[in-house]
Amino acid sequence: MYSAPRSILAVAVVFISGLTETVSFAQGINFIRHAADPLPVSKTVSSRVPCTNNSRTTTAAGGDADVPCDAPPVSVPSLNPCNPATLPQIGCTPATDPVHENLAAMGKPGQKILRARDRVLEILQSENACSAWFRQKDPNPAAAFQTLGFAIDRHGEEVIHVSKGAASEYFFRDPYVAKVGQDIGAFSTITLNAGGAFFRALATTVAVSKEGGLSTFEKPRLINVGPYPGDSLDARTLALLHEFGHVLNLLPQDFDNEDGRSMQNTVEVLRFCRAEVESKVRRSTLAVRR
How many CB atoms lie within 10 A of CB 263? Predict the structure, then answer.
């Protein structure tokens, strides 16, 4: 329904006034957004473009005839330059790392874990064969590894068991190094044996008789993790990568090293990660500042 002819002038004045206020308000918002947004992509105005109407067509004002006036506003996702999964940016407040803080409070054992953890994070945050292998299971393995907690088993095995086989050959079983649940994902806990090669270079040997009699203690022997001597950074780094392989289900279960499965899994980790484990070059600043 239309208004009476004598009201046309008043309506026109009100309409023009409202349109002017709308355009000014939109420009004010646009100015505020330009001043507040540090990223060029954030300057895209998400409100609708003013339209001009006539009796035949409805097109967008400003000469962009490809944009229909009834099109919904475009939602531009905001970018976070301080994403903790990326390298730190200038002006960003560092995120906290509670695992790092807990390890720092554990004394010398915590420092050993911390250095190996930092080494693994450097490897996983870089582009290399090792990180690519872990990305088969998790697109951001560094972020997943960073959530893992650590516990020390102070009552675990601490001796090497020696037994003699039927053909008079000797079998040596070292104390376990570390353990974790299989395929349990982020925020799980890796348990490290205080008597194993993560913390020690030597272990006492115990000979077990075939008859199951009393064991006899022999002199200490060197223990290791793969090809690396116990209580070395390379050994600890390899141990954590091995356990992380179980967390992501990249490696099959190897509880108690049945049929030498644990050693086979260690060989598999070395196949992809040996070059990075043995690299002495510090790769980059970690994503989480300590």
Answer: 12
* Sign of the torsion formed by the C-alpha atoms of 15, 18, 20 and 26: negative
What separation in angstroms does the CA of 68 have from each of 27, 57, 76, 89? 21, 10, 18, 39
The model's pTM is 0.66
Boundaries of every domain in the chain: 98-278
What's the token pair of residue 253? Answer: 């279960």
Distance CA 53, CA 59 (A): 7
What integer is the mean pLDDT of 20-32?
A: 41
pLDDT digits (tens, 9 = 90+) for 193-236: 999 999 999 999 998 776 666 677 788 999 999 999 999 999 99
Return the structure tokens found at 45.
Answer: 């105005």
Each residue's pLDDT tens digit, 37-71: 444 444 444 445 555 555 444 444 444 545 555 55
Sheet strand arrangement including 178-179: 149-153, 189-193, 178-179
Report the C-alpha gap between 149 and 257 in whole angstroms. 23
Q: According to the model, what pLDDT value does residue 37 have?
A: 45
C-alpha dist (Å) from residue 164 to 24, 69, 117, 208? 91, 86, 38, 8
Spatial neighbors of 120 by CB under 8 A, at least 6 apart, are 145, 237, 240, 241, 244
